[in-house]
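Appendix B. Raw example, untouched.
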Amino acid sequence: MRDFLDTLRDAPLLFDGAMGTLLYDRGVMHTRSYDELNLSQPELVAQIHREYLDAGADILETNTFGANRLALAKHGFSDRAAEINAAGARIAREVAGSHAYVAGAIGPTGVKFAVAPDHQRRLALDALREQIEALAAAEVDLLLLETFTSILELEAAVALARAHGGGRPVGAQLVFGPDRRADGGLSPAEVAERLVAAGADFVGANCGAGPPELYDVAVAMVDCGKPVSVQPNAGLPSVIEGRTIYVANPEHFGVFARRLLKSGVKLVGGCCGTTPEHTRRMMGAVRMMGARPQSARLREAATRAAVAASPPKPAVPLAERSRLGARLAAGEFVVSVELNAPAGTDTTRVEAAVRELLAGGVDIVNIADGPRATARMGNLALCALLRQRTGVEPILHVCTRDRNFLGLVAHLLGAHALGMRDLVIITGDPPKMGDYPFATPVYDIDSIGLLKLARDLNAGIDPAGRALDGQTAFVLATGAEPGAADYERELRRLEAKVAAGAELVMTQPVYDARTLERFLDDVAPLGVPVMVGLLPLASHRNAEFLHTQVPGMSIPDAYRARMARVGSGPAARAEGVAIAREVLAAVKHRVAGAYIMPPFNRVDSALAILDEVRGDRWTPAPPPDRAD
Protein backbone atom coordinates (compact mmCIF):
# COMPACT_ATOMS: atom_id res chain seq x y z
CA MET A 1 0.00 0.00 0.00
CA ARG A 2 1.02 3.59 -0.61
CA ASP A 3 2.56 5.52 2.27
CA PHE A 4 -0.17 6.94 4.48
CA LEU A 5 1.08 10.52 4.55
CA ASP A 6 1.62 10.55 0.76
CA THR A 7 -2.00 9.49 0.30
CA LEU A 8 -3.19 12.09 2.79
CA ARG A 9 -1.40 14.85 0.88
CA ASP A 10 -3.40 13.96 -2.24
CA ALA A 11 -6.87 13.33 -0.85
CA PRO A 12 -8.94 13.36 2.35
CA LEU A 13 -9.35 10.10 4.24
CA LEU A 14 -12.18 8.58 6.23
CA PHE A 15 -11.80 6.99 9.68
CA ASP A 16 -14.25 4.38 10.91
CA GLY A 17 -16.65 5.02 13.83
CA ALA A 18 -17.28 3.78 17.33
CA MET A 19 -16.22 0.29 18.40
CA GLY A 20 -17.54 0.36 21.98
CA THR A 21 -21.00 1.52 20.90
CA LEU A 22 -21.42 -1.48 18.61
CA LEU A 23 -19.97 -3.95 21.13
CA TYR A 24 -22.43 -2.70 23.74
CA ASP A 25 -25.33 -2.95 21.29
CA ARG A 26 -24.35 -6.58 20.67
CA GLY A 27 -24.61 -7.56 24.27
CA VAL A 28 -21.16 -6.88 25.74
CA MET A 29 -21.73 -5.15 29.07
CA HIS A 30 -19.76 -2.01 29.86
CA THR A 31 -18.25 -3.75 32.88
CA ARG A 32 -16.19 -5.95 30.52
CA SER A 33 -12.81 -5.04 29.09
CA TYR A 34 -13.62 -4.32 25.46
CA ASP A 35 -9.92 -4.57 24.58
CA GLU A 36 -9.66 -8.12 25.97
CA LEU A 37 -12.29 -9.19 23.41
CA ASN A 38 -9.40 -9.26 20.92
CA LEU A 39 -8.44 -12.52 22.66
CA SER A 40 -11.76 -13.99 23.78
CA GLN A 41 -14.10 -12.91 20.96
CA PRO A 42 -11.92 -11.93 17.97
CA GLU A 43 -14.65 -12.70 15.41
CA LEU A 44 -17.02 -10.18 17.01
CA VAL A 45 -14.34 -7.49 16.75
CA ALA A 46 -13.53 -8.53 13.18
CA GLN A 47 -17.19 -8.34 12.17
CA ILE A 48 -17.42 -4.73 13.33
CA HIS A 49 -14.24 -3.89 11.41
CA ARG A 50 -15.76 -5.50 8.30
CA GLU A 51 -18.92 -3.43 8.62
CA TYR A 52 -16.92 -0.22 8.74
CA LEU A 53 -14.78 -1.31 5.80
CA ASP A 54 -17.90 -2.13 3.78
CA ALA A 55 -19.30 1.30 4.72
CA GLY A 56 -16.31 2.95 3.05
CA ALA A 57 -13.76 3.56 5.82
CA ASP A 58 -10.23 4.19 4.58
CA ILE A 59 -8.75 3.73 8.08
CA LEU A 60 -9.66 1.05 10.61
CA GLU A 61 -8.72 1.72 14.23
CA THR A 62 -7.57 -1.23 16.27
CA ASN A 63 -9.73 -2.26 19.24
CA THR A 64 -7.00 -1.16 21.65
CA PHE A 65 -8.14 2.22 22.95
CA GLY A 66 -7.86 1.10 26.60
CA ALA A 67 -5.16 -1.53 26.11
CA ASN A 68 -2.45 0.04 28.27
CA ARG A 69 -1.51 -1.87 31.41
CA LEU A 70 -2.90 0.73 33.82
CA ALA A 71 -6.34 0.69 32.22
CA LEU A 72 -6.28 -3.09 31.83
CA ALA A 73 -5.39 -3.53 35.52
CA LYS A 74 -8.98 -2.64 36.43
CA HIS A 75 -10.05 -5.90 34.73
CA GLY A 76 -7.07 -8.02 35.79
CA PHE A 77 -5.35 -8.06 32.38
CA SER A 78 -2.37 -5.74 32.94
CA ASP A 79 0.14 -8.54 32.25
CA ARG A 80 -1.48 -9.25 28.89
CA ALA A 81 -1.19 -5.72 27.48
CA ALA A 82 1.30 -6.59 24.72
CA GLU A 83 -0.71 -9.69 23.74
CA ILE A 84 -4.00 -7.75 23.56
CA ASN A 85 -2.46 -5.01 21.43
CA ALA A 86 -0.86 -7.49 19.04
CA ALA A 87 -4.16 -9.34 18.67
CA GLY A 88 -6.05 -6.10 18.03
CA ALA A 89 -3.62 -5.12 15.28
CA ARG A 90 -3.76 -8.59 13.71
CA ILE A 91 -7.58 -8.62 13.60
CA ALA A 92 -7.76 -5.18 11.99
CA ARG A 93 -5.03 -6.03 9.47
CA GLU A 94 -6.73 -9.25 8.39
CA VAL A 95 -9.94 -7.35 7.71
CA ALA A 96 -8.29 -4.33 6.08
CA GLY A 97 -6.09 -6.35 3.74
CA SER A 98 -4.88 -3.98 1.03
CA HIS A 99 -8.10 -1.95 1.10
CA ALA A 100 -7.63 0.23 4.19
CA TYR A 101 -4.97 1.54 6.54
CA VAL A 102 -4.74 0.26 10.11
CA ALA A 103 -4.37 2.81 12.90
CA GLY A 104 -3.11 1.65 16.25
CA ALA A 105 -5.55 3.27 18.69
CA ILE A 106 -4.04 4.52 21.95
CA GLY A 107 -6.06 6.22 24.69
CA PRO A 108 -5.08 7.94 27.94
CA THR A 109 -3.88 6.01 30.98
CA GLY A 110 -6.22 7.63 33.50
CA VAL A 111 -3.39 9.30 35.40
CA LYS A 112 -4.11 12.99 36.05
CA PHE A 113 -0.88 14.43 34.67
CA ALA A 114 -1.41 17.96 35.92
CA VAL A 115 -1.44 16.93 39.59
CA ALA A 116 0.00 13.39 39.69
CA PRO A 117 3.27 12.76 41.55
CA ASP A 118 6.33 11.89 39.50
CA HIS A 119 6.19 8.13 40.15
CA GLN A 120 2.61 7.93 38.78
CA ARG A 121 3.64 9.86 35.70
CA ARG A 122 6.51 7.43 35.17
CA LEU A 123 4.09 4.49 35.42
CA ALA A 124 1.83 6.14 32.86
CA LEU A 125 4.69 6.82 30.46
CA ASP A 126 5.93 3.23 30.79
CA ALA A 127 2.42 1.95 30.03
CA LEU A 128 2.12 4.15 26.95
CA ARG A 129 5.58 3.17 25.72
CA GLU A 130 4.76 -0.53 26.12
CA GLN A 131 1.55 -0.15 24.11
CA ILE A 132 3.23 1.90 21.37
CA GLU A 133 6.00 -0.68 21.00
CA ALA A 134 3.48 -3.54 20.83
CA LEU A 135 1.42 -1.88 18.11
CA ALA A 136 4.51 -0.89 16.12
CA ALA A 137 5.79 -4.48 16.32
CA ALA A 138 2.43 -5.64 14.99
CA GLU A 139 2.96 -3.48 11.85
CA VAL A 140 0.12 -0.98 12.12
CA ASP A 141 0.29 1.76 9.46
CA LEU A 142 0.01 4.68 11.87
CA LEU A 143 -0.44 5.47 15.56
CA LEU A 144 -3.50 7.41 16.71
CA LEU A 145 -3.41 9.01 20.16
CA GLU A 146 -7.04 9.87 20.85
CA THR A 147 -9.50 11.02 23.50
CA PHE A 148 -6.78 12.51 25.71
CA THR A 149 -8.07 15.18 28.09
CA SER A 150 -4.66 16.28 29.38
CA ILE A 151 -2.47 18.22 26.96
CA LEU A 152 0.56 17.31 29.07
CA GLU A 153 -0.13 13.58 28.76
CA LEU A 154 -0.83 13.88 25.05
CA GLU A 155 2.40 15.81 24.40
CA ALA A 156 4.32 13.14 26.30
CA ALA A 157 2.56 10.39 24.34
CA VAL A 158 3.46 12.05 21.03
CA ALA A 159 7.12 12.15 22.09
CA LEU A 160 6.99 8.45 22.99
CA ALA A 161 5.33 7.57 19.69
CA ARG A 162 8.03 9.44 17.80
CA ALA A 163 10.77 7.64 19.75
CA HIS A 164 9.29 4.12 19.86
CA GLY A 165 6.84 3.93 16.95
CA GLY A 166 9.28 2.76 14.33
CA GLY A 167 8.88 5.90 12.23
CA ARG A 168 5.14 5.49 11.78
CA PRO A 169 2.96 8.58 11.32
CA VAL A 170 1.55 9.89 14.58
CA GLY A 171 -1.86 11.51 14.99
CA ALA A 172 -2.85 13.37 18.17
CA GLN A 173 -6.45 14.21 19.14
CA LEU A 174 -7.49 16.08 22.27
CA VAL A 175 -10.97 16.28 23.79
CA PHE A 176 -12.78 19.64 23.58
CA GLY A 177 -15.91 20.59 25.47
CA PRO A 178 -19.12 22.15 24.18
CA ASP A 179 -17.49 25.55 24.83
CA ARG A 180 -14.83 24.72 22.16
CA ARG A 181 -12.09 24.78 24.80
CA ALA A 182 -9.75 22.03 25.94
CA ASP A 183 -7.61 21.29 29.00
CA GLY A 184 -7.16 24.42 31.09
CA GLY A 185 -9.17 26.60 28.70
CA LEU A 186 -6.81 26.10 25.75
CA SER A 187 -8.12 27.31 22.40
CA PRO A 188 -8.04 25.04 19.33
CA ALA A 189 -5.23 27.07 17.78
CA GLU A 190 -3.15 26.79 20.96
CA VAL A 191 -3.68 23.03 21.13
CA ALA A 192 -2.72 22.58 17.48
CA GLU A 193 0.43 24.65 17.91
CA ARG A 194 1.55 22.62 20.90
CA LEU A 195 0.84 19.24 19.30
CA VAL A 196 2.67 20.20 16.11
CA ALA A 197 5.62 21.34 18.21
CA ALA A 198 5.53 17.99 20.06
CA GLY A 199 5.99 16.18 16.74
CA ALA A 200 2.52 15.04 15.61
CA ASP A 201 2.04 14.40 11.89
CA PHE A 202 -1.63 15.33 12.10
CA VAL A 203 -3.65 16.92 14.89
CA GLY A 204 -7.27 17.27 15.80
CA ALA A 205 -10.13 16.55 18.16
CA ASN A 206 -12.42 13.66 18.97
CA CYS A 207 -15.11 12.68 21.45
CA GLY A 208 -16.38 15.14 24.05
CA ALA A 209 -18.74 17.00 21.73
CA GLY A 210 -20.83 16.64 18.62
CA PRO A 211 -20.43 17.83 15.02
CA PRO A 212 -21.34 21.52 15.47
CA GLU A 213 -18.89 22.06 18.30
CA LEU A 214 -16.00 20.16 16.68
CA TYR A 215 -16.60 21.90 13.36
CA ASP A 216 -15.71 25.18 15.05
CA VAL A 217 -12.69 23.55 16.69
CA ALA A 218 -11.42 22.11 13.40
CA VAL A 219 -11.80 25.32 11.42
CA ALA A 220 -9.68 27.09 14.05
CA MET A 221 -6.94 24.46 13.58
CA VAL A 222 -6.58 24.26 9.80
CA ASP A 223 -3.81 26.85 9.56
CA CYS A 224 -1.50 24.94 11.92
CA GLY A 225 0.71 23.57 9.14
CA LYS A 226 -0.31 19.93 9.57
CA PRO A 227 -3.39 17.96 8.43
CA VAL A 228 -6.35 18.20 10.80
CA SER A 229 -8.55 15.27 11.87
CA VAL A 230 -11.97 15.37 13.50
CA GLN A 231 -14.02 12.52 14.98
CA PRO A 232 -17.06 13.82 16.89
CA ASN A 233 -19.54 11.93 18.97
CA ALA A 234 -22.99 11.42 17.48
CA GLY A 235 -24.12 14.59 19.24
CA LEU A 236 -24.10 15.23 22.96
CA PRO A 237 -25.38 12.19 24.86
CA SER A 238 -28.76 11.89 26.56
CA VAL A 239 -29.69 9.25 29.12
CA ILE A 240 -33.07 7.74 28.15
CA GLU A 241 -34.49 4.92 30.30
CA GLY A 242 -31.05 4.13 31.63
CA ARG A 243 -29.35 4.00 28.23
CA THR A 244 -26.93 6.55 26.81
CA ILE A 245 -28.29 7.73 23.45
CA TYR A 246 -26.53 9.91 20.88
CA VAL A 247 -28.89 11.89 18.69
CA ALA A 248 -26.91 13.19 15.67
CA ASN A 249 -28.17 11.04 12.81
CA PRO A 250 -26.10 9.74 9.88
CA GLU A 251 -27.50 12.36 7.49
CA HIS A 252 -26.24 15.06 9.85
CA PHE A 253 -22.76 13.53 9.68
CA GLY A 254 -22.80 13.57 5.88
CA VAL A 255 -23.48 17.32 5.87
CA PHE A 256 -20.91 17.87 8.63
CA ALA A 257 -18.21 15.98 6.71
CA ARG A 258 -18.78 18.03 3.56
CA ARG A 259 -18.50 21.28 5.51
CA LEU A 260 -15.33 20.12 7.23
CA LEU A 261 -13.59 18.98 4.07
CA LYS A 262 -14.50 22.20 2.27
CA SER A 263 -12.89 24.05 5.18
CA GLY A 264 -9.57 22.27 4.75
CA VAL A 265 -9.84 19.35 7.20
CA LYS A 266 -8.17 16.22 5.82
CA LEU A 267 -9.44 13.37 8.04
CA VAL A 268 -12.98 12.80 9.26
CA GLY A 269 -14.63 9.99 11.18
CA GLY A 270 -16.85 9.20 14.12
CA CYS A 271 -16.49 8.56 17.83
CA CYS A 272 -18.99 7.52 20.53
CA GLY A 273 -22.46 6.73 19.26
CA THR A 274 -21.54 6.55 15.59
CA THR A 275 -22.15 3.49 13.44
CA PRO A 276 -21.27 2.18 9.97
CA GLU A 277 -24.24 4.14 8.62
CA HIS A 278 -22.64 7.37 9.86
CA THR A 279 -19.45 6.29 8.07
CA ARG A 280 -21.36 5.53 4.88
CA ARG A 281 -22.90 9.00 4.82
CA MET A 282 -19.52 10.65 5.33
CA MET A 283 -18.01 8.53 2.57
CA GLY A 284 -19.92 10.49 -0.08
CA ALA A 285 -18.25 13.71 1.03
CA VAL A 286 -14.78 12.14 1.06
CA ARG A 287 -15.26 10.71 -2.42
CA MET A 288 -16.51 14.01 -3.73
CA MET A 289 -13.49 15.89 -2.37
CA GLY A 290 -10.75 13.64 -3.72
CA ALA A 291 -9.53 10.36 -5.12
CA ARG A 292 -10.67 7.60 -2.84
CA PRO A 293 -7.75 5.21 -2.24
CA GLN A 294 -10.02 2.27 -1.47
CA SER A 295 -11.77 2.49 -4.84
CA ALA A 296 -8.44 2.78 -6.64
CA ARG A 297 -7.02 -0.22 -4.80
CA LEU A 298 -10.10 -2.32 -5.45
CA ARG A 299 -9.99 -1.47 -9.14
CA GLU A 300 -6.28 -2.31 -9.34
CA ALA A 301 -6.94 -5.62 -7.59
CA ALA A 302 -9.72 -6.42 -10.04
CA THR A 303 -7.43 -5.62 -12.95
CA ARG A 304 -4.72 -7.92 -11.61
CA ALA A 305 -7.29 -10.65 -11.15
CA ALA A 306 -8.54 -10.45 -14.74
CA VAL A 307 -8.44 -13.83 -16.45
CA ALA A 308 -6.51 -12.55 -19.43
CA ALA A 309 -5.28 -8.99 -19.50
CA SER A 310 -4.99 -7.67 -23.05
CA PRO A 311 -2.40 -5.29 -24.45
CA PRO A 312 -3.73 -1.79 -25.19
CA LYS A 313 -4.49 -0.74 -28.75
CA PRO A 314 -2.96 2.46 -30.10
CA ALA A 315 -5.30 5.36 -29.43
CA VAL A 316 -7.00 6.99 -32.39
CA PRO A 317 -4.93 10.10 -33.29
CA LEU A 318 -6.30 13.25 -31.66
CA ALA A 319 -6.92 14.98 -35.01
CA GLU A 320 -9.11 12.11 -36.17
CA ARG A 321 -11.43 11.92 -33.17
CA SER A 322 -13.54 15.07 -33.58
CA ARG A 323 -13.58 18.66 -34.82
CA LEU A 324 -12.41 19.71 -31.38
CA GLY A 325 -9.54 17.22 -31.54
CA ALA A 326 -8.57 18.39 -35.02
CA ARG A 327 -8.44 22.03 -33.94
CA LEU A 328 -6.40 21.21 -30.85
CA ALA A 329 -3.98 19.11 -32.89
CA ALA A 330 -3.57 21.94 -35.41
CA GLY A 331 -3.03 24.54 -32.69
CA GLU A 332 -6.12 26.50 -33.74
CA PHE A 333 -8.02 28.66 -31.28
CA VAL A 334 -11.01 26.72 -29.94
CA VAL A 335 -14.33 28.20 -28.87
CA SER A 336 -17.05 26.41 -26.92
CA VAL A 337 -20.21 27.80 -25.37
CA GLU A 338 -21.91 26.04 -22.46
CA LEU A 339 -25.67 25.56 -22.51
CA ASN A 340 -27.90 24.00 -19.88
CA ALA A 341 -30.35 21.23 -20.60
CA PRO A 342 -34.03 22.14 -20.12
CA ALA A 343 -35.77 21.48 -16.83
CA GLY A 344 -38.45 19.55 -18.71
CA THR A 345 -39.06 17.92 -22.07
CA ASP A 346 -39.17 20.93 -24.41
CA THR A 347 -35.87 21.37 -26.28
CA THR A 348 -37.10 24.17 -28.55
CA ARG A 349 -35.24 26.98 -26.82
CA VAL A 350 -31.92 25.21 -26.51
CA GLU A 351 -32.12 24.16 -30.18
CA ALA A 352 -32.76 27.79 -31.13
CA ALA A 353 -29.77 28.84 -29.03
CA VAL A 354 -27.57 26.33 -30.81
CA ARG A 355 -28.70 27.52 -34.23
CA GLU A 356 -27.90 31.10 -33.25
CA LEU A 357 -24.42 30.01 -32.18
CA LEU A 358 -23.92 28.10 -35.42
CA ALA A 359 -24.90 31.15 -37.40
CA GLY A 360 -22.31 33.11 -35.43
CA GLY A 361 -19.55 30.64 -36.31
CA VAL A 362 -19.48 28.51 -33.15
CA ASP A 363 -19.54 24.79 -33.85
CA ILE A 364 -18.83 23.37 -30.40
CA VAL A 365 -21.15 23.54 -27.37
CA ASN A 366 -20.86 22.12 -23.88
CA ILE A 367 -23.88 20.51 -22.23
CA ALA A 368 -23.50 20.29 -18.46
CA ASP A 369 -24.43 17.19 -16.42
CA GLY A 370 -26.97 18.30 -13.78
CA PRO A 371 -25.14 21.55 -12.90
CA ARG A 372 -25.50 22.70 -9.29
CA ALA A 373 -27.17 19.32 -8.60
CA THR A 374 -30.41 20.34 -10.29
CA ALA A 375 -32.89 18.04 -12.04
CA ARG A 376 -32.77 18.48 -15.82
CA MET A 377 -33.07 16.45 -18.98
CA GLY A 378 -30.21 13.99 -19.30
CA ASN A 379 -27.39 15.68 -21.17
CA LEU A 380 -26.55 12.59 -23.26
CA ALA A 381 -30.07 12.54 -24.70
CA LEU A 382 -29.91 16.27 -25.40
CA CYS A 383 -26.47 16.03 -27.01
CA ALA A 384 -27.68 13.27 -29.31
CA LEU A 385 -30.76 15.32 -30.30
CA LEU A 386 -28.73 18.47 -30.93
CA ARG A 387 -26.17 16.63 -32.99
CA GLN A 388 -28.90 15.04 -35.09
CA ARG A 389 -31.08 18.15 -35.52
CA THR A 390 -28.51 20.94 -35.81
CA GLY A 391 -25.20 19.34 -36.76
CA VAL A 392 -23.44 20.93 -33.79
CA GLU A 393 -20.55 19.10 -32.17
CA PRO A 394 -21.48 18.72 -28.48
CA ILE A 395 -19.06 18.27 -25.62
CA LEU A 396 -20.66 15.92 -23.10
CA HIS A 397 -20.03 16.66 -19.43
CA VAL A 398 -19.79 13.48 -17.35
CA CYS A 399 -19.78 13.64 -13.54
CA THR A 400 -19.35 10.80 -11.09
CA ARG A 401 -22.11 11.88 -8.70
CA ASP A 402 -25.14 10.07 -10.10
CA ARG A 403 -23.89 6.76 -11.53
CA ASN A 404 -22.07 3.89 -9.92
CA PHE A 405 -18.96 2.41 -11.48
CA LEU A 406 -20.80 0.02 -13.81
CA GLY A 407 -23.24 2.77 -14.75
CA LEU A 408 -20.37 5.05 -15.76
CA VAL A 409 -18.85 2.36 -17.99
CA ALA A 410 -22.23 1.80 -19.67
CA HIS A 411 -22.77 5.57 -19.99
CA LEU A 412 -19.46 6.13 -21.79
CA LEU A 413 -19.89 3.19 -24.14
CA GLY A 414 -23.42 4.31 -24.96
CA ALA A 415 -22.27 7.89 -25.53
CA HIS A 416 -19.68 6.72 -28.02
CA ALA A 417 -22.25 4.63 -29.87
CA LEU A 418 -24.43 7.76 -30.19
CA GLY A 419 -21.60 9.71 -31.78
CA MET A 420 -20.22 11.60 -28.77
CA ARG A 421 -16.48 12.09 -29.11
CA ASP A 422 -15.73 14.96 -26.70
CA LEU A 423 -15.99 14.59 -22.92
CA VAL A 424 -15.47 16.94 -20.00
CA ILE A 425 -14.92 14.72 -16.97
CA ILE A 426 -15.65 16.17 -13.54
CA THR A 427 -16.52 14.90 -10.05
CA GLY A 428 -19.77 16.92 -9.84
CA ASP A 429 -21.54 19.08 -7.27
CA PRO A 430 -23.01 17.23 -4.25
CA PRO A 431 -26.84 17.03 -4.03
CA LYS A 432 -26.79 19.30 -0.98
CA MET A 433 -26.10 22.20 -3.35
CA GLY A 434 -29.31 21.69 -5.29
CA ASP A 435 -33.04 21.38 -4.77
CA TYR A 436 -32.98 17.67 -3.88
CA PRO A 437 -30.74 17.30 -0.82
CA PHE A 438 -32.19 13.87 -0.02
CA ALA A 439 -30.73 12.44 -3.25
CA THR A 440 -27.92 9.98 -2.60
CA PRO A 441 -24.53 10.83 -4.15
CA VAL A 442 -22.61 7.86 -5.52
CA TYR A 443 -19.01 8.93 -6.14
CA ASP A 444 -17.73 5.37 -6.63
CA ILE A 445 -14.77 7.11 -8.27
CA ASP A 446 -13.80 10.72 -8.76
CA SER A 447 -12.79 12.59 -11.92
CA ILE A 448 -9.27 11.15 -11.81
CA GLY A 449 -10.62 7.61 -11.71
CA LEU A 450 -13.08 8.33 -14.51
CA LEU A 451 -10.33 9.80 -16.68
CA LYS A 452 -8.34 6.59 -16.23
CA LEU A 453 -11.40 4.57 -17.14
CA ALA A 454 -12.03 6.62 -20.32
CA ARG A 455 -8.35 6.48 -21.28
CA ASP A 456 -8.47 2.70 -21.03
CA LEU A 457 -11.60 2.58 -23.19
CA ASN A 458 -9.72 4.64 -25.79
CA ALA A 459 -7.07 1.90 -25.70
CA GLY A 460 -9.71 -0.82 -26.17
CA ILE A 461 -9.42 -2.10 -22.59
CA ASP A 462 -12.30 -2.55 -20.13
CA PRO A 463 -11.88 -1.74 -16.40
CA ALA A 464 -10.88 -5.34 -15.63
CA GLY A 465 -8.07 -5.32 -18.20
CA ARG A 466 -9.89 -7.32 -20.87
CA ALA A 467 -10.12 -6.38 -24.53
CA LEU A 468 -13.19 -4.47 -25.68
CA ASP A 469 -15.00 -5.28 -28.89
CA GLY A 470 -13.58 -2.17 -30.57
CA GLN A 471 -12.32 0.98 -28.87
CA THR A 472 -13.56 4.46 -28.11
CA ALA A 473 -12.14 7.66 -29.58
CA PHE A 474 -12.87 10.30 -26.96
CA VAL A 475 -11.15 13.66 -26.57
CA LEU A 476 -10.72 13.89 -22.80
CA ALA A 477 -11.07 17.28 -21.14
CA THR A 478 -11.14 18.10 -17.45
CA GLY A 479 -11.84 21.09 -15.23
CA ALA A 480 -9.58 23.23 -13.07
CA GLU A 481 -10.07 26.13 -10.67
CA PRO A 482 -7.33 28.77 -11.01
CA GLY A 483 -8.68 30.65 -7.99
CA ALA A 484 -9.04 27.62 -5.69
CA ALA A 485 -8.68 28.37 -1.98
CA ASP A 486 -6.32 25.39 -1.64
CA TYR A 487 -4.32 26.21 -4.75
CA GLU A 488 -1.54 23.67 -4.15
CA ARG A 489 -4.09 20.87 -3.86
CA GLU A 490 -5.72 22.03 -7.09
CA LEU A 491 -2.38 21.85 -8.91
CA ARG A 492 -1.62 18.38 -7.51
CA ARG A 493 -5.02 17.12 -8.61
CA LEU A 494 -4.57 18.61 -12.06
CA GLU A 495 -1.21 16.85 -12.37
CA ALA A 496 -2.98 13.61 -11.42
CA LYS A 497 -5.73 14.28 -13.99
CA VAL A 498 -3.21 14.79 -16.76
CA ALA A 499 -1.38 11.62 -15.72
CA ALA A 500 -4.75 9.84 -15.81
CA GLY A 501 -5.41 10.89 -19.41
CA ALA A 502 -6.68 14.49 -19.55
CA GLU A 503 -5.79 16.13 -22.87
CA LEU A 504 -7.43 19.52 -22.38
CA VAL A 505 -8.04 21.77 -19.36
CA MET A 506 -11.16 23.94 -19.21
CA THR A 507 -11.00 26.39 -16.33
CA GLN A 508 -13.71 27.65 -14.04
CA PRO A 509 -14.61 31.30 -14.69
CA VAL A 510 -11.72 33.70 -14.09
CA TYR A 511 -11.99 37.48 -13.69
CA ASP A 512 -8.53 38.36 -12.44
CA ALA A 513 -5.95 38.19 -15.23
CA ARG A 514 -3.15 37.89 -12.65
CA THR A 515 -4.76 34.77 -11.18
CA LEU A 516 -4.98 33.24 -14.63
CA GLU A 517 -1.42 34.22 -15.54
CA ARG A 518 -0.12 32.50 -12.40
CA PHE A 519 -2.15 29.39 -13.23
CA LEU A 520 -0.92 29.29 -16.83
CA ASP A 521 2.69 29.62 -15.64
CA ASP A 522 2.26 26.81 -13.13
CA VAL A 523 0.56 24.35 -15.50
CA ALA A 524 2.78 25.03 -18.51
CA PRO A 525 5.11 22.09 -17.62
CA LEU A 526 2.14 19.72 -17.94
CA GLY A 527 2.05 20.39 -21.68
CA VAL A 528 -1.74 20.37 -22.08
CA PRO A 529 -3.79 23.12 -23.77
CA VAL A 530 -5.93 25.36 -21.56
CA MET A 531 -9.26 26.95 -22.46
CA VAL A 532 -10.10 29.94 -20.28
CA GLY A 533 -13.52 29.93 -18.65
CA LEU A 534 -15.55 33.13 -19.02
CA LEU A 535 -18.87 33.81 -17.32
CA PRO A 536 -20.14 37.31 -18.18
CA LEU A 537 -21.52 39.08 -15.13
CA ALA A 538 -25.24 39.79 -15.30
CA SER A 539 -25.62 42.45 -12.59
CA HIS A 540 -23.99 44.02 -9.56
CA ARG A 541 -25.85 41.60 -7.31
CA ASN A 542 -24.61 38.68 -9.41
CA ALA A 543 -21.03 39.95 -9.13
CA GLU A 544 -21.23 40.25 -5.34
CA PHE A 545 -22.76 36.80 -4.99
CA LEU A 546 -20.04 35.16 -7.08
CA HIS A 547 -17.30 37.03 -5.21
CA THR A 548 -18.54 36.29 -1.69
CA GLN A 549 -20.45 33.01 -1.94
CA VAL A 550 -18.82 30.84 -4.61
CA PRO A 551 -15.52 29.16 -3.63
CA GLY A 552 -12.72 29.85 -6.08
CA MET A 553 -14.37 32.97 -7.55
CA SER A 554 -12.54 36.24 -7.02
CA ILE A 555 -13.71 39.37 -8.82
CA PRO A 556 -11.34 42.35 -8.59
CA ASP A 557 -12.60 45.42 -6.75
CA ALA A 558 -12.42 47.52 -9.92
CA TYR A 559 -14.75 45.19 -11.80
CA ARG A 560 -17.21 45.02 -8.91
CA ALA A 561 -17.20 48.81 -8.72
CA ARG A 562 -17.99 49.00 -12.42
CA MET A 563 -20.90 46.61 -11.97
CA ALA A 564 -22.12 48.66 -9.00
CA ARG A 565 -22.26 51.77 -11.17
CA VAL A 566 -24.53 50.12 -13.78
CA GLY A 567 -26.65 48.04 -11.34
CA SER A 568 -28.78 45.63 -13.37
CA GLY A 569 -30.59 45.25 -16.67
CA PRO A 570 -29.21 45.62 -20.22
CA ALA A 571 -26.51 48.09 -19.18
CA ALA A 572 -25.21 45.66 -16.56
CA ARG A 573 -25.17 42.78 -19.03
CA ALA A 574 -23.24 44.91 -21.52
CA GLU A 575 -20.72 45.81 -18.80
CA GLY A 576 -20.37 42.12 -17.89
CA VAL A 577 -19.59 41.31 -21.53
CA ALA A 578 -17.03 44.13 -21.66
CA ILE A 579 -15.26 42.77 -18.56
CA ALA A 580 -15.18 39.25 -20.01
CA ARG A 581 -13.69 40.63 -23.22
CA GLU A 582 -10.98 42.42 -21.25
CA VAL A 583 -10.04 39.20 -19.45
CA LEU A 584 -9.93 37.32 -22.75
CA ALA A 585 -7.85 40.07 -24.39
CA ALA A 586 -5.27 39.83 -21.60
CA VAL A 587 -4.61 36.11 -22.10
CA LYS A 588 -5.87 35.17 -25.57
CA HIS A 589 -2.37 34.63 -26.94
CA ARG A 590 -1.52 32.25 -24.07
CA VAL A 591 -4.56 29.97 -24.14
CA ALA A 592 -5.86 27.37 -26.57
CA GLY A 593 -9.37 28.73 -26.57
CA ALA A 594 -12.33 30.25 -24.77
CA TYR A 595 -14.99 28.36 -22.83
CA ILE A 596 -17.93 30.71 -22.37
CA MET A 597 -20.76 30.13 -19.89
CA PRO A 598 -23.49 32.69 -20.64
CA PRO A 599 -26.10 33.04 -17.87
CA PHE A 600 -29.55 31.73 -18.76
CA ASN A 601 -28.30 30.48 -22.18
CA ARG A 602 -27.95 34.09 -23.41
CA VAL A 603 -25.96 33.31 -26.54
CA ASP A 604 -25.87 36.96 -27.63
CA SER A 605 -23.54 37.60 -24.69
CA ALA A 606 -21.28 34.74 -25.77
CA LEU A 607 -21.10 35.96 -29.36
CA ALA A 608 -20.34 39.51 -28.21
CA ILE A 609 -17.38 38.22 -26.17
CA LEU A 610 -16.08 36.34 -29.19
CA ASP A 611 -15.76 39.56 -31.16
CA GLU A 612 -12.55 39.99 -29.16
CA VAL A 613 -10.90 37.11 -31.05
CA ARG A 614 -12.90 37.01 -34.28
CA GLY A 615 -10.54 37.24 -37.23
CA ASP A 616 -7.58 37.53 -34.86
CA ARG A 617 -7.09 34.10 -33.30
CA TRP A 618 -10.46 32.54 -34.12
CA THR A 619 -11.86 31.74 -37.54
CA PRO A 620 -15.60 31.13 -37.31
CA ALA A 621 -16.82 27.85 -38.72
CA PRO A 622 -19.37 27.75 -41.55
CA PRO A 623 -22.81 26.53 -40.47
CA PRO A 624 -23.20 22.74 -40.84
CA ASP A 625 -25.41 21.28 -43.54
CA ARG A 626 -27.36 18.98 -41.25
CA ALA A 627 -29.71 21.39 -39.49
CA ASP A 628 -33.43 20.75 -39.95
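End of appendix B.
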